[in-house]
Amino acid sequence: MGDLSRDERESLRFEIFQKIKKPLDEWMKLVPGLRFYAERCLRTERYDGNVVLMVVDASFTSIGLNYFKSVVPKVLEFKEKFGIKSLCELAKYDLGKLKSVWKNERSWRVATAIASYLSNFGIDDRTAFRQWARNSKLLSWKEDPLGRIKGVGLVTYQYLRMMGGVDTVMPDRIVKRVINELLNETGFEGITDDIEFIKFVEELAKFSGYYATEICWITWFIQYEEDERKNYISMLKYI
């Protein structure tokens, strides 16, 4: 769309959104309770509001394993085994002990670094997390204190922003593949650039009446067959 005028770009954008909305509506019918869970995420209330578990979740997710089969069970195991209550406690915890649940040391270094930064706010964990997210910026994410942490890429950064209350999307491989396939099916080119992709989905969300977070999550669920999808949806009440 680079050679088009502003009016032409806006007209084309509107046409794209119109064609995408119908299949998007059909997807949403497959997970009728998704809005509740998206809103809970945006209120920073996942895991019963336990920010430690949200940070650990994001850190585990960053290495790209299956979320429901690998990440969620290990986050819940971590919760039961250690009972760490605050980011301050997590920041100082012995990595060797933490690795008894999740062996990837990089994940723990990411988690403890995030916890260390947020715990320095001097306020409760949830308020600190939401304050960071509120002040975070997409375009300058690499300069953000969390974006500068080794192992925190754009996908993890966006995931943290979502759980901190920013309605946005993670440009992970599944989300991009599903949305770009939808674009192709409706006669349009996919979007390869991550930043442009995020902006596009955020605009699509405003047009369609969904949260960007909902659109992000629905792309994960529709890749599964019905029985598996229902099983994973049932897990949302615990996370």
Query: At the first level of CATH, what is the class of the largest domain?
Result: Mainly Alpha
From the alpha-carbon coordinates, what is the Rg to the nearest angstrom? 18 Å
Roughly how many Å apart are the termini?
A: 40 Å
- Can you give the helix content as a percent range? 55-70%
Q: Largest sheet, described in full?
A: none
Derived from helix and strand composition plus strand pairing, the structural class reads mainly alpha
Query: β content, as a range?
Result: under 5%
- In total, the number of strands is 0
- String of helices and strands: HHHHHHHHHHHHH
Please identify, by name, the CATH architecture of the largest domain. Orthogonal Bundle
Oligomer: single chain
- CATH topology (level 3) name of the largest domain: Endonuclease III, domain 1
Mean pLDDT: 94
Number of helices: 13
In the residues, how many domains can be counted? 2
Overall shape: it is globular
Q: Which stretches of 5+ consecutive residues score pLDDT under 50? A: none
Would you give an account of this structure?
- With 239 residues, the chain is mainly α.
- Helix content is 64%, strand content 0%.
- The protein is built from 13 helices and no strands.
- The protein has helices spanning 6-30, 34-42, 51-61, 67-82, 87-91, 95-98, 105-119, 125-135, 154-163, 173-185, 194-208, 212-221, 226-235.
- Helix 10 (173-185) crosses helix 12.
- The protein is globular, with a radius of gyration of 18 Å.
- The N and C termini lie far apart (40 Å).
- The mean pLDDT is 94.
